[in-house]
Amino acid sequence: MEQLHAKDVLAFVEGQGKKETLRFITCGSVDDGKSTLIGRLLYESKNIFDDQLQALESDSKRYGTQGEKMDMALLVDGLQAEREQGITIDVAYRFFSTEKRRFIVADTPGHEQYTRNMATGASTAHVAVILVDARKGVLVQTRRHSRIASLMGIKQVVLAVNKMDLVGYDQLVFDSIVSEYRAFAADLGFEGLQAIPLSGLDGDNVVTRTENLAWYDGPSLIHYLETVEIHTASDRGAFRLPVQLVNRPNLDFRGFCGRIAEGTVKPGDQVRVLPSGVRTTVKAVIDGFEEVGAAHAGNSITITLNDEVDASRGDVIVAADRPAEVADQFEAKLLWMAEHAMSPGRQYLMKLGCKEVTATIMGIKYRQDVNTGGHMAAKTLELNEIATVDISTSAPLVFEPYGTNKLLGSFILIDKLTFETVGAGMIDFALRRASNIHWQALELDRNARAAMKHQEPRCIWLTGLSGSGKSTIADLLEKRLYSQGKHTYLLDGDNVRHGLNRDLGFTEADRVENIRRVAEVSKLMVDAGLIVIVSFISPFRTERRMARDLFHEGEFVEVFVDTPLEECERRDVKGLYAKARKGELKNFTGIDSEYEVPESPEIHLRTTGLTPEVCAEQVLKGLQ
Question: What does pTM read for this prediction?
Answer without folding.
Answer: 0.70
